[in-house]
Design goal:
Blueprint (H helix, E strand, L loop, with lengths): L8 H11 L2 H23 L6 H10 L4 H7 L4 H9 L3 H9 L12 H10 L2 E2 L2 E2 L2 H12 L4 H5 L1 H19 L10
Antiparallel strand pairs: 1-2
Helix pairs in contact: 1-3, 2-3, 2-7, 3-6, 3-7, 5-6, 6-7
Length: 179
């Protein structure tokens, strides 16, 4: 089977700029910084992670944000956009970065890292997981009531994921080292 060619970083940045506002671009760039920091720390500890895939997927995780705010289906629209461009591996991760996907399982380090990195960034600021989850609840509860019914289970699973990541790399959860 032929290995999928990933888009360049530059192409990813152009794609998010084309489809989104400046604040979403800034958010995506900060999520990318968190994702790459964590991925590199995990690789140093011996985990096998496709750093290029984490890099590109974290840049493109909100490619559909503007469209999905209007229509719903965040992640699903992003997955479709990326599959149409032939970026199937990235599409799967983009689909799985959405909050409720943790209930269905994140299967790879790449999926876990992009999901988690997004849950640590509000706008373009790194925040605690608790602060980000409060922001999500306040911002999106009125949009998706079904999601809020499952919120406590989602929150528990995200905390388990956070512990999984940080127990591997043994660093402070505040992520102050990231610029």
């Amino acid at each position: 089977m032929k290995k999928e060619v990933l888009p360049s970083r530059r192409h990813c940045i152009d794609l998010i700029r084309k489809n989104n506002s400046d604040n979403i671009v800034k958010h995506s760039l900060k999520v990318n910084s968190v994702a790459m920091y964590l991925a590199k720390k995990l690789v140093k500890k011996g985990e096998i992670i496709d750093l290029d895939l984490v890099d590109r997927a974290s840049l493109l995780h909100d490619i559909d944000k503007i469209e999905s705010l209007k229509k719903g289906n965040h992640g699903i629209i992003g997955e479709r956009i990326l599959k149409e461009k032939g970026f199937h591996k990235i599409a799967v991760i983009v689909r799985k970065h959405v909050l409720d996907q943790i209930l269905y399982g994140l299967n790879t380090w790449e999926e876990k890292i992009v999901f988690y990195a997004d849950k640590r960034v509000v706008d373009d600021k790194i925040v605690s997981l608790e602060e980000r989850l409060k922001y999500i609840k306040n911002r999106y509860a009125h949009i998706n009531e079904k999601l809020m019914d499952k919120y406590s289970e989602i929150e528990k699973k995200i905390l388990i994921l956070e512990n999984e990541i940080f127990s591997e790399i043994n660093i402070a959860k505040d992520l102050k080292a990231i610029k």
